[in-house]
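The freezer alarm interrupted the setup, so I double-checked each line after restarting. Inputs confirmed:
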Amino acid sequence: MATAALIDGKAFAEDLRARVGEAAAAFAQATGRKPGLAVVLVGDDPASQVYVGAKGKACEAAGMASFEHRLPADTSEAALLSLIERLNQDEAVDGILVQLPLPAHLDEQAIIAAINPDKDVDGFHISNAGRLAVGQAGFVPCTPLGCIMLLKDRLGDDLSGLDAVVIGRSNIVGKPMAQLLTDANATVTLAHSRTKNLADVVRRADIVVAAVGRPEMVRGDWIKPGATVIDVGINRLPPEPGKEKGKLVGDVAFAEARDVAGAITPVPGGVGPMTIAVLLRNTLVAAHAHAGQPAPGGL
Ligand code: NAD
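Predicted 3D structure, all chains:
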């Protein structure tokens, strides 16, 4: 049986980061300032600390200014809202990202609602969700935007006639993914934890996007031969004896699916690297809008 082509998200993301870097340099030349991203972290969740560190480094590597705000876990909602208000007003800040999850005493929806939608480079603000829903320009969450870029790179911009199944209906991945696929003319099914006969639903799909968070749930015999499979899941298995860390796997049983699919993203090295690259892209777009300049082409 033919083995699926590997969709190399790492290489695509590196190329996107390089293009963003060039456009950021041109922006700095034209305006006298770098595009700026403020990242706010509340508390000391180890995974969040790693993500925030990686975002700051990626910003600087792309020639952007990074403003990190690390606040203690017991920060009050009023203090966080007042920081966001300052960042909304700050002319050096084009994008604002509040790292989720927030400690339980903070109201995530209220915090996100306080971000100026035109600086909401994560695309989580209700205004940006609404803009996506009605087809207006706005910020689209980074992970699904990265997935649609990979899909269009492989299948072309027009997905007419293709059946797509998205598994997972979260606000940050599944729902916006379904909307992006619909906008690209695919016929979309949004499956979730209450979907009956999920394997049969997935078997119809020319495009499968798995965003569940359950290791290797999607089996090889669920995949239609030749389908394009985008695996968003990042799951760490328990460590093998003698090893400190478990292996990272996606939501798709990769070895099985590779024998059936036409193309598939690996985990790691597929969707993961796209998320930060798209965050930089969104920040660059925000900077242009903020400076009253037309959006940079080709990104
Ligand atoms: P979430 O927990 O918010 O949503 C999971 C979704 O899966 C829910 O909508 C639920 O209905 C669905 N689901 C749960 N069990 C199911 C089942 N048995 N059958 C079908 N559907 C089921 O998760 P999320 O934030 O959307 O993230 C999903 C996965 O993607 C996680 O593994 C996460 O780590 C990963 N992720 C990766 C990136 C990246 O950069 N690559 C970014 C975001 C999330």
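Quick read of the result. The chain has a mean pLDDT of 97.
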